[in-house]
Design a protein that fits this description.
This protein has about 170 residues and is mainly beta. The chain has strands at about 1-5, 5-10, 15-20, 25, 40-50, 55-60, 70-75, 80, 90-95, 100-105, 115, 120-125, 140-145, 150-160. The chain has a four-stranded antiparallel beta sheet with strand order 1-2-5-6, with no helix packed on it. Strands 7-9-12-11 form a four-stranded antiparallel beta sheet, with no helix packed on it. Strand 11 and strand 12 form a beta hairpin. It is elongated and about 90 Å long. The termini are far apart.
């Protein structure tokens, strides 16, 4: 909405602004997603007070669909201290707004201690791993989810071993 000495320009919508020189832009804080809205039809009124004229114009705005990176989550990252080779850590779940296939990979400091089952997307301790809670109770890995077009999301995850306390003392003098 803008008032001018030679007239008024009005854009009546939630998404777009128009400047005094006729430049159309998104309102602050607005982003567009082609999966939600692919086309907008804008009705723009131009008022010329000096000539006592008003005109109405329709503009079509097409939103280009761009490939978006997948998102993902891990269902669990804590395992019991009795974990052994093959123990399930958690399952990966992914969402890709474009419906692209998503593949997962592991990297990072302790990645060689884990495997991803490509059919179930479950992360497990690798078959050759000997889990020794006396030397390590936290494992750092990087999980990457990549779509068919190479876009990816990356998360650094710590897999924690839930070690039960072994030496408890109850103090009744509180």
């Amino acid at each position: 909405d803008g008032s001018h000495s030679d007239g008024v320009v009005i854009v009546d919508n939630l998404w777009f602004d128009i400047s005094s020189n006729g430049e159309i832009s998104l309102k602050p804080g607005v982003s567009l997603d082609a999966e939600e809205y692919s086309t907008f039809t804008l009705r723009v009124y131009v008022v010329d007070n000096s000539k006592d004229q008003i005109s109405q114009h329709y503009l079509n705005v097409s939103v280009n669909n761009i490939n978006e990176a997948p998102t993902f989550s891990l269902s669990n990252r804590i395992v019991d201290e009795t974990a052994t080779a093959g123990t399930l850590i958690g399952a990966l779940a992914s969402t890709d707004a474009d419906g692209d296939e998503v593949e997962f990979s592991l990297s990072g400091q302790d990645a060689d201690m884990f495997v991803i089952d490509s059919e179930t997307n479950e992360i497990k301790f690798a078959e050759s791993v000997n889990v020794d809670i006396d030397s390590q109770v936290s494992f750092n890995i990087t999980i990457t989810a990549q779509d068919n077009f190479g876009l990816e999301s990356v998360q650094n995850i710590s897999i924690e071993v839930n070690v039960a306390p072994t030496d408890l003392t109850l103090d009744t003098n509180i």
